[in-house]
User: What shape does this take?
Amino acid sequence: MSATASSINKASQSGGKGKRQMDKLLLQILGYVVITILAVFCFIPFLLVVSSSFSDEQSIIEEGFKLIPTSFSTEAYSLLFKYPEQMLKAYGVTIAVTVIGTVLGLFLTSMTAYVLQRKDFKWRNQFSFFFFFTTLFSGGLVPWYLMITKYLNMGDTLLVLILPMLLNVFYIIVMKSFMNSIPEAITESAKIDGAGDFRIFIQLILPLAKPALATIGLFIALAYWNDWYNALLFIQNENLMPLQYYLYKMLGNMDGMRKAMMQSGAVVNMALPTESLKMAMTLVATGPILLAYPFIQRYFVQGLTIGAVKG
Amino acid sequence: MNRSGFWGEVKKNRALLLMLTPAVLFFLLFAYVPMAGIVLAFKQYNHTGGIFGSPWNGLDNFKFFFESGNAWLVTRNTVLYNIAFIVVNNVLQITVAILLFEVAGKWFRKIAQTVMFLPYFISWVVVGAIAYNLFNFDVGTINSILTTFGMEPIDIYNTPGYWPVILVLVAAWKSLGYGSVMYLAAITSIDTEMYEAAEIDGANIFQRIWKITIPNLIPTIIILVLLAIGNIFRGDFGMFYNMVGNNGLLFSATDVIDTFVFRTLISSNDIGMSAAAGFYQSILGFATILIANYAVRKYDKDHALF
Assistant: This one.
């Protein structure tokens, strides 16, 4: 784009050319400066957590958290990995919920989207509205909460961490608009060959929808990985705490942490390096996302692009 | 055999209908039945009666809600925060998207985008931990910087006045990457011929941005702002709860409808008042989205949501 623009510029030797080049340069400099500053602001908090988690507890108490630790220590991590039972349990819950929720949610999202975009399905608009309306109006927290705890009886189960987040209308809409770009002829010719709708969906449509599946799957997985809200509302059993909720609990309640460690055999009257431990736990709970992030980031960008273009 | 009419259509589409069944059931259970449960706002809830069997108590729940003095406070906070978020986030995201598009370095653009997108990926719990790291009175980074320069430490968690600024900054920080990528996608899809024509006509780069880029972004802006306006009575519970928690000292500046409803339900177990506040929120939100959509429809039919 900039290549064509500059060649046009060269071609038209008008008088304002020098000034226009200046404007462009000015904007470039402004762009680099502003974006660098914002990017640094986006990144510094993460560095703070990392450096705080590697700081010596005594130095934190005396001088506070610092971007560059005055004295380096891995005490928090060695403690975390010495008594990892609770943490591992929380990891297990989160991984199970994320895997099951993503697979099931993705399957249902795409199956629903496929039916809704079938032009020959007479009631597709009515059903689309049935789903869309839920984004406009809701009964609020209380009836939803009572539905889940009292009528469905799902409190304190693994199911309550999966089911309420299974489907999202916006993902159905994005998937639907992606599937609109798959030629209708595929469905039509398969029907003529005698294939059923479900088989067409599984064998023909799903493979073609792979890019959208990857993107939406990652959005769903991220939502499950980061969920703590359903646990806050519905989970009391310590063995069912997902990772983010476990972190939430520990940040607010280091005594609980001490107790959990005592149960797994730590020294009773040990003084915990509370502050660095909080930051170390934060990092361990975010770790997999930070590690996977560089590789999965482009799928999110792709997904937003699909959503933005198709509205 | 009757092949026409309603049942004929059902029979013809039975496979498709079967494929829709799980989603329909899902939204019935988790959206439509709770929608009907909104009648709880007018009931004296008891556990045996449940949502539909409990006795009616007229407007008592609303009376408590409005007389508690919280209704106005939480409504004001929710709406003002959301307006601030809509304005600040969109202006910032559009600016960054335009700059990212104009900046020449491909690698710089990629790296900047990756770094700015990072906050979107972490949970609000982790954001809460970061806030603790920054703002804690005894060990927080801000105070450790202040004391290094010989200044007095500030007690952020006990001073409501700081929080509107903090929360607006945090919301902007979390959504910057996501939003700017979305706007960047919209900018990239603008026909480049328009830019070239403008250049030939002697427009400078700022005129080009102002006259071509921004007008072409209007449909995207309208959709995103419309969606945000529809949620103007919904506070982002994850953010407010993890940043502020149950710190009552800050509520005057930070309590929103969602945190109030949650506390009333979970901490005080006052199902009636909580349901009334939820009802109030749902109705206001629904009315707002209808009005906003109607206004956009009047202005330009193509840009409306529905």
Chain B touches chain A through 110 residues (CB under 8 Å). Residues 5-53 of chain B form one domain. The mean pLDDT of chain B is 91. Residues 70-102 of chain B form the longest helix (33 residues).
